[in-house]
Amino acid sequence: MIETDFERASSWSEFERTMMKHAGELLGTAIRLTGSRAEGEDLVQDSVLRAWQFRAQFERGSNARAWMHRILMNTFINGYRRKRRERDILTLAGVEVDDELSPNENISLGDEVESALATLPDEFRTVLMRVDLNEQSYREVADALGCPIGTVMSRLHRARRVLKTKLRAYAKSEGYVHNITAEAA
Q: Does the model's pTM come out above 0.70?
């Protein structure tokens, strides 16, 4: 087994030198996602803690910036899902809750992603938004749209494929992907 930089580095200072140079950028992303500086700071703090806990999984030579952004996004999404489950439980218990978790209000997708989404045909965009952002099941989407589940799955696959093509250069420039080969293109 190859020992990573983080496995050798038992100190916080080594971790900080390697990862924390991206903290300002992470905070900007976190503020855009949460819509609040205080919540953004909390999100960054939680993400840094998770990165420290899972530092042994960081692959040598890979992009630390992209790794930290992925952890930040996963932490945000997990928190969103947890809040949604809590809201659903409270609603079932008869407690009135504000519907503050609408993805359109609290999930900021960025200009490039918004532009790419806008180019999708309505039927593709609707399915993608319902499944990926609103976390609806294929059955829920099929029932809402009055179409078979297979149609939902097909539209979702096509929408994701179109977005992948449209966002490939952006993802590479932001460090989310490396060495895009002709086969993957």
A: no
